[in-house]
Write a structure and sequence with these properties.
The two termini are 25 Å apart. The chain is globular. The mean pLDDT is 89. Helix 3 packs antiparallel against helix 5. It has a domain of 95 residues. The strands form 3 sheets. It has a 3-stranded mixed sheet with strand order 1-5-6. The chain is of the alpha/beta class. Helices cover 33% and strands 16% of the residues. It contains 7 helices and 8 strands; from the N terminus they run H-H-H-E-E-E-E-H-E-E-H-E-H-H-E.
Length: 261
């Protein structure tokens, strides 16, 4: 077993502060005031939510922050069980009906249950602004213990489990993100800057196997950095399935999918 490749699968992000300091810009300054930044954040979030729902036929729903342990809907974030959820005991009515509760880590399994509970039909789905706590994450420039992210899920048929359908859906999501950037720049023209070029309109699709072929001697995080120099907007397919070197591009949780393409 290659210990360096195993270590490389440990988690998202860079993983150590020495390497992090090498990539963070030293001359960054916000183009907006703190007040304007908050206005921009909420305006863009609303734009993305509304247009994701429109493009993908979704409805906004509320996801729980706390779940009962026995419900089984909280997610594992990895395959080895090292990232465990925050758990606490609720002494309900003096422990006559106690609850062992967990803070949500991710909503993957919950969403699939929710599709049934909300009566979603083929082609319909849900979107939620999920809040979660991931206490075992390495903290860097884009990873936090506190998670605020969109989660969505849609009912598809077995015949739609194809790469063509995946790309069709991903392109719709990318279209929303590109339009959201333009919308933000309309609201706040100072966000237009040659220092920060706009998102490319076209998204490139590569399989994780392609990245391994292109950069066989680089660990996967460095593969991603290298390939972005050529394809600045990239969707990587098959990141959780073992590649030709017997290692996946990234260690995905068993709750997420079968990863096979």
């Amino acid at each position: 077993m290659n210990s360096s490749k195993v270590a490389d699968l440990a988690g998202p992000g860079i993983g150590n502060y020495e390497d992090l300091e090498k990539i963070l810009p030293t001359d960054y300054s916000s183009a907006l005031t703190r007040r304007e930044t908050q206005k921009a954040i909420f305006a863009v979030k609303r734009f993305i939510e509304d247009n994701l729902c429109k493009e993908l036929h979704l409805m906004m729903v509320t996801v729980p922050l706390i779940v009962d342990v026995v419900s089984g809907v909280n997610d594992m974030l990895d395959r080895d069980g090292s990232r465990t959820p925050i758990q606490f005991h609720i002494s309900n009515d003096r422990d006559l009906h106690p609850v062992d509760a967990q803070i949500v880590q991710a909503a993957t399994k919950w969403k699939r249950t929710a599709l049934r509970e909300f009566g979603m039909r083929l082609g319909e789905g849900l979107c939620t602004d999920m809040r979660a706590v991931r206490k075992d994450y390495f903290l860097d420039h884009d990873h936090s213990v506190y998670v605020d992210q969109w989660d969505w899920e849609r009912v598809i048929s077995p015949e739609q489990r194809t790469l063509d359908f995946l790309k069709e859906v991903v392109n719709k999501i990318w279209k929303v993100l590109v339009e959201a950037e333009l919308y933000a720049q309309e609201l706040f023209p100072e966000l237009r800057s040659p220092k920060f070029p706009n998102l490319p309109e076209k998204l490139t699709f590569l399989h994780a196997e392609d990245l391994l072929d292109m950069y066989p001697n680089l660990p996967r995080k460095q593969r991603e950095t290298a390939v972005l120099q050529q394809y600045p907007a990239l969707f990587i397919i098959g990141i959780g399935h073992p590649l030709a070197d017997s290692y996946p591009h990234e260690m995905r949780a068993a709750d997420y999918d079968d990863w096979v393409t």
